[in-house]
Amino acid sequence: MDKGGESISDEELERFLREAEAGGRDAPEEPSARARMVARRLREEPGPPEGWRTYRPARPRRRRGRYLAGLVVALALVVVALAPGWVAGLFGGGSGGSAPLAAESTRPDQPPPTEVAARLPTVDQPFRGSPAARWDDGAEGIHLPVPRATGWMSKAQVAQALERTRDFLVASSLDTGVLRGERPGRAIALINPHQRDVRDYLAAAFREPSRENDPLLLFSRFTGEVRLVGDVVKTRGRVTYREGERGAVEVTTDVTYVYPVVRAEAGSDEVARTIVRREVVMSWDDPAKVITEPGTFSLVSYKMDTTNSGCDTFTGYLTPEFIADRAATDTGDGPAVDPYDRSTSMDARMREAGEAGCGTATRS
Prior knowledge:
Blueprint: H1 10-22, H2 34-44, E1 59-63, E2 79-80, H3 84-90, E3 136-137, E4 142-143, H4 155-173, H5 176-179, H6 185-188, H7 196-207, E5 226-228, E6 234-243, E7 249-263, E8 272-284, E9 298-307, H8 323-327, E10 336-337, H9 346-353, E11 359-361
Parallel strand pairs: 1-9, 2-11, 4-6, 10-11
Antiparallel strand pairs: 3-6, 5-7, 6-7, 7-8, 8-9
């Protein structure tokens, strides 16, 4: 667990998972309203109702791609890109001095505009030529909605759940140590340890990453072969919530992260950008109805869409390509994708991509 903001050692984390698997507190008694809830669910759902105090397994989804002969990054839904100069010229946004955008309160109806002139990123201006130049920095780009009493939670409890939701996003996708490849102990400590399918996924993901068990579905980690440019990651996203099953507060997060990187070698100055969009749906459960731990949530589903992070490679790390790397790479066979387009839902993007593999990013 989180100890006053300090990171957790691998040994402590493994002990935490073992203890969670051994069992929790005595099960709470079933409230008398169960019969009415089951009856309603039978009417609303074609299949059998889920067991009381059990979980629907979290649903992982991913789309990954490769940036090919393109400029900086490309790999969202997975992606591969075009010629360096031309791709850079497609980037929307302006310089770091452009006025910041207002918070994204609803899904936009179109992608951000593009600019005609090629504007390559530099170490001094790593977001130049990208729509992200006008995005907020880090946690400031993850805007929380106004809390209201929902489900089993009061207004104050919903506000706390939303803050902890953002804490998870920061610990999983913005924490400096995690971005350097460390294990995301603080983020994992916020996940309900009694959710067996998630425990199994986490154990396998960090022991032996694979297509089915990829830690990148939830966490952003780079290898030591690259380093972040500066200390700013640009973000833009939306957090919504509603009453979920058994009166839980179900929170949906849809956030895009833009990571500028260079090679780790001294003197490297070619900037590449890796773009990651994640949708994580979590359930803040009523402890009277679901076995959970205070201050933790249950994962409902998680989806990922990345650009320039490694096409169909499952090392457990984001592996951006640079110009020299892309020169020898095959072009992608998937659809063209704008990684900055947030007007399309993650579900729609997954359907469009299907199982096509690497696609082509229109900009980085």
